[in-house]
Structures are given as C-alpha cells and as structure tokens.
Amino acid sequence: MGGKFFAETVADLPPKAREAAIVQEILRGNIPDFLRTFVTIKVGDGVAYEVMPDYLAIGTDADFVRMPMMPQSAAIIATAFGCTLPTRKMVNDIYAQAAIKLEPGNADYRVSLALLFRDLGFSVRAKGEAERAVAADPNNQKARDLLRELKGV
Prior knowledge:
There is one protein chain. It is globular and about 50 Å long. It folds into 2 domains: about 5-95, no CATH class; about 105-150, no CATH class. A hairpin with a 4-residue loop joins strand 3 (about 55-60) and strand 4 (about 65). About 50% of the residues lie in helices and about 10% in strands. It is mainly alpha-helical. Strands 1-2 form a two-stranded antiparallel ribbon. A two-stranded antiparallel sheet has the order 3-4.
C-alpha cells in the first residue's frame, strides 16, 4: 500500500485507532526500501551507532509518507525491530552528519508539514508549523491562510 493512500485511510480515524493502524502497518513491513539500510554515525573514540537514513515512513520508495506518531507508538515499533529511540544528543549527532539538511526557515516546507499534521488530526502541531511558516515568511499567503484556518478565525 502506498503512503498517500495509507495517510488518507487513517486521516479520519480517532487518535488511538490511527496510532494502532500506523504501528500495524509498519510492523507488517510497509516501509520504503531506502529506510532498510542503516547509516553509521561516528561520534568519536571508536563509538558509533546505526540509524535510519530518514524519519520513519509508510509506503514505497516512490510513494511514501513520513508518519507523525506518538512516542508510545514509536517505542513499540523501535522495540519490535530491536532499536531504540534517539536521545537529544543522538539527534544532534545525526543532524551534524546528515547529507541533506532541510532549511528550518523554509516557509513552503513548514506549510507542507502543517498540512500533513492537519490532515492527520494533529491540530496543535499543525498550528505550530503554520506559525513557524508565517514567521519565516510573513508574505506567504498560503501560510497566512492556513494559520487563520487553524486558529478558527
């Protein structure tokens, strides 16, 4: 099942049902192939760990959606695959060694993320991303319209 179709099928589910569906789909192995090969992060003095090359997603290489989920769901998935969730230090190490870094001030990126969060029912996260989009580019009409919608104005 492709990521877009999956996201559409869970968008209107209640939060607990949506989380259960996300966990079930990932545990079935419906993740893009590019996530199956881990990347080594070297942190000095012979210490290294293996990480996925991107955020957890559902679907195929050609049709995937990075799936926001609750920490409890992420922990269930990590445990099932013999992994752990990253600490703040690990996240910083991963970002420092990332081949591609997204621009945090890119308003269009923030709008896309806000739309995804909105469609998945994460209204607080959607509003936060829309606010960051407007802060990054106050003249971005799409960001301003979305923020107004999310605020209920």
